[in-house]
Amino acid sequence: MAQPQGSLDVDAAAPDHRPLADRMRPRSLDEVVGQEHLLGPGAPLRRALEAGHLHSMVLWGPPGTGKTTLARVVARHSDAEFLSLSAVLAGVKDIRAAVERARRVRTAEGRATVLFVDEAHRFNKAQQDAFLPHVEAGEVVFVGATTENPSFELNNALLSRVRTYVLRPLGREALLAVLERALADPERGLGGRVEAERAALERIAEAADGDARRALNLLEIAADLAEPDAGGRRRIGEAVLAQVAVADVRRFDKGGDLFYDQISALHKAVRGSDPDAALYWLARMLDGGCDPLYVARRVVRMASEDVGNADPRALRIALDAWEAYERLGSPEGELAIAQAVIYLACVPKSNAAYVAFGEAMEDARRHGSLEVPLHLRNAPTRLMRELGHGRGYRYAHDEPGAYAAGERYFPEGMPERRYYRPTDRGLEARIRERLEALRALDREARAAKGAPPEGR
Questions:
Q1: Averaged over 146-159, what is the pLDDT?
Q2: Which of 51, 61, 294, 312 has the fewest CB atoms nearer than 10 Å to its CB?
């Protein structure tokens, strides 16, 4: 069984060969770079900690945004014991061992214990439930770190006992500050031994893409590759970076929140008739490794949901783009998807078909298995004809204007509904005009028969 690890004074006890990213971990709230919305003056987490209100929490954010570091800083600021578990390796026995240790610390020293759980979303429901009585009793201060949406990955019982804080990717200036601090710090960093051109630092910051750990790892690799001068100092410039795999790796999780957030942004940009933003989000997804066929399927959905009959060509263009990608693959087929996205973003929009279908489905479920009226039933046999199937049906093509004015097609006992309400945009404007004219004929025909004036 993996034993929980107590807090260490990492400045004194850790060996010198620790990675630069670990050596440069902030030791206090003031040393944390970024996350001003949580730790800036008057921000909620800082205000709570400065008031001495140590509490259980979940830290949710992308990799390299400081979740582990913040948990350590919180424990140190509150003079609490720090225990760490990884949900990848630990189980219920490890949780019990950590709680027992926390009890001993409370009894012997009167100090609280911060139990940090990395990758908390990897614990199953039973393992998450194991924390509940101990968090409720205050035996441990639970601090969970997760890159996944807690609403989906953590159970409600645990979420109700903690506060959730969202950590954001570090901006360019924050990453530059992290790199410059590492270059200047002679004790934990590279101070006095390594210099770097500003352009090189900017390139590293851009490649890190909001991830402080990645930025420091790239800086350390570059420092190792730089040749020392006569005085033993190393200088990082473009020539050195050419030897480092400083590839721009954008954040994209094929099954997580970033994936769904980006496809949501693409869909909303199309719906909002912004072809440029739609293209940007399409490029972000494809560049991040998203399956183009998934995007193609979603584009077909957009064509029906958001364009509909305002421009029926949109659906055909979306299907053509899907087929083009299946035939050509990447990168040629991606251009067809981009073309479809642009078209959908530019044409008139209507969700009338989407809304109509949803309302019809709701009625189908609510009204149950209503029988088909006899005059609408098929009558392929004599018995069926004798039973009245099809009797009184009016063949529309034999009626004036190919329209059986006043005819009713809903089940008996169910009021007629108008699900489809065309907009005044695109082709639907003409569709609306035609439906209004046909409904006028219905009203006239029913009035002549003395029937109720309901119409289609």
A1: 88
A2: 51
User: Dihedrals φ, ψ of 260, to 5°?
Assistant: -70, -30
H or E stretch at 83: strand 81-86
pLDDT digits (tens, 9 = 90+) for 162-187: 999 999 989 999 999 999 999 999 99
Domain with CATH 1.10.8.60 in the chain: 172-241
- Distance from CA of residue 432 to its chain's centroid? 38
Class of domain 371-449: mainly alpha
pLDDT in tens, 63-109: 889 999 999 999 999 999 999 999 888 888 999 999 999 999 999 99
Cα–Cα distance measured from residue 176 to residue 197, given in angstroms and rounded to the nearest whole number? 12
Please state the rounded mean pLDDT for residues 219-246: 84
- Sorted by sequence, the CB contacts under 8 Å of residue 342 that are 6+ apart come out as 275, 278, 279
Helix, strand, coil share (%) of the chain residues, nearest 5: 55, 5, 40
Q: Which residue, 111, 37, 26, is CA-closest to 70?
A: 26
The contacts found for 226-232 with CB under 8 angstroms, 24 or more apart, are: 226/194, 232/193
Taking CA atoms, 135 is separated from 34, 97, 122, 144, 148, in Å, by 29, 15, 19, 12, 21
Supply the pLDDT for residue 456: 46
Q: Which part of the chain is CATH 3.40.50.300?
A: 10-166
Mean pLDDT of 25-35: 91
Class of domain 10-166: alpha beta
CATH topology of domain 257-346: Zinc Finger, Delta Prime; domain 3 (1.20.272)
Residue 22: φ, ψ to 5°: -75, -40
Alpha-carbon distance 317 to 322, whole Å? 9
Per-residue pLDDT, averaged over 411-424, amounts to: 88
Q: Which CATH number fits domain 172-241: 1.10.150.20, 1.10.630.10, 1.10.8.60, 1.10.287.80?
A: 1.10.8.60
Burial of 452 (0-12, 13-18, 19+ CB in 10 A): exposed
Instruction: Indicate if the pLDDT at residue 333 is higher than 60.
Output: yes
Q: What Cα–Cα distance (Å) separates residue 375 from each residue in 144, 200, 315, 393, 402?
A: 65, 80, 34, 5, 18
